[in-house]
Amino acid sequence: MLLPEKGRSFATFLLLLLLGMGCNPEEKLPLPDQKNALFEQPAHFPQPNYDFSRNPVTEAGFELGRKLFYDPILSRDSSISCASCHRQEFAFADAGKTISPGIVGRLGSRNSPALFNLAWSTSFMWDGGVNHLEVFPLAPITEPAEMDETLVRVMEKLRIHPTYPALFQAAFGPGELTDQRFLFALAQFQLALVSGDSPYDRFIQGKASLPATALKAGICF
Length: 221
Prior knowledge:
Layout: H1 8-22, H2 59-69, H3 82-85, H4 138-142, H5 151-159, H6 164-172, H7 179-191, H8 199-204, H9 212-217
């Protein structure tokens, strides 16, 4: 992401503070009858680090998270979405660009990283400056060189939107459209982005071979 090097520790603290202000850690948001239906763990992967007991990936939650991910409403001027810099055809990265552009053509200092297998990650952004997936979206949303928006304004826009309130209720049940539910939905979409059938995955499972050039270069080890 494009968060500047200077002041990153303070920014991470601020993001965690913002999340804590609007969230009740004891609240079990997903409906009781919903299961972790859309997260598939490859057999050769270790156990995920993410705590799915608090936020299982359900069909309604995933679809809501995907809609939010592709919706430019999350930016200040509604011109760019998360998907603008995390493109599906490039493993949800921004291939070919040295620096990912933000609203009104602003440039920060980084290219957007790929998003996959995040359930196994314990740190996020190129430098690991954010330590939880649910906090991760706040960095690009609030960064002036990216989406330049505030969490408060995002929630205001979602609450008066013609379709989002119903979608949030379908995903999480009756209740207020909170920032926690918003961040949980984005997390559900990202958690479902699992890459477990690459040539390297097939190689380590003994299902396929790799080109001699790859083995010689050691690019997969």
